[in-house]
Amino acid sequence: MDATGGTGGLAIEIAQRLTTGRxxxxxxxxxxxxxxxxxxxxxxxxxxxxxxxxxxIGEVAGDLKLPPLDGVVADLGVSSLELETAERGFSxxxxxxxxxxMNPQAPLTAAEIVNHWPEKDLANLLYQxxxxxxxxxxxxxxxxxRPIRDTEHLATVVAGGRKVRGRQKLHPATKxxxxxxxxxxxxxxxxxxxxxxxxxxxxxxxxxxxLSYHSLEDRRVKQAFLRLxxxxxxxxxxxxxxxxxxxxxxxxxxxxxxxxxxxxxxxxEAIRRAENGQ
Length: 278
What we know:
Layout: H1 9-17, E1 23-27, H2 30-39, E2 47-51, H3 57-63, E3 69-75, H4 80-84, H5 110-116, H6 119-130, H7 135-145, H8 151-161, H9 174-184, H10 187-197, E4 202-212, H11 215-231, E5 234-236, H12 246-251, E6 259-265, H13 268-275
Parallel strand pairs: 1-2, 3-4
Antiparallel strand pairs: 4-6, 5-6
Helix pairs in contact: 6-7, 6-9, 7-8, 10-11
């Protein structure tokens, strides 16, 4: 199962390699799912696509009457489609509405947070979700500049509210946009549910790979895998997190912050044997 299909980058690579079995692809973005459907037309007999959040992995597996899964992959990043479509409001590099919803049917938008949340709540959001050191200064600047018209306006206000600290690697609005996106899409809640529900869907020997893109996200994945390892139900295959090399980053700059962790579901007996060197 590709739990976060996006526009099908991983799904098509998996589908091309399938000699038996099937691939289930989930995504909450209906537009992305349509692109994936088109890209996977040649494999439609062995692929099923479902419009839903990845937190519903257990329900989907039950509804589709799937046997235990041999593999689950989840790429937690925002798709290029969402970043490059200005009217979705994900990027501070393009003027667009303050939206940021991965699922257009979701009730909360970035505009609601930016223009209506109390200053204190806004500051807490920026600090807790994105570790923004200038959270209070930025929140104060946003409240004073209300109403914020669009993403370009917001990026300008945020840049003006931050304290200058020499040369900056990131755009001044990077963390603010990240925090807003996380809140709008309930990303932390979704990830927690996904991490707790996926183990039951995997077969013994099934592999679980997750790609994350910021420290708080990666920390949750790392802790979940460690907990499962300590419980004796999973073996961590990436003792050291996998990150892209220089060549990959050159070919795909958006991969620069990616971190991949992989775990394998095992039976308790397999762990005992491994510990005894059998």
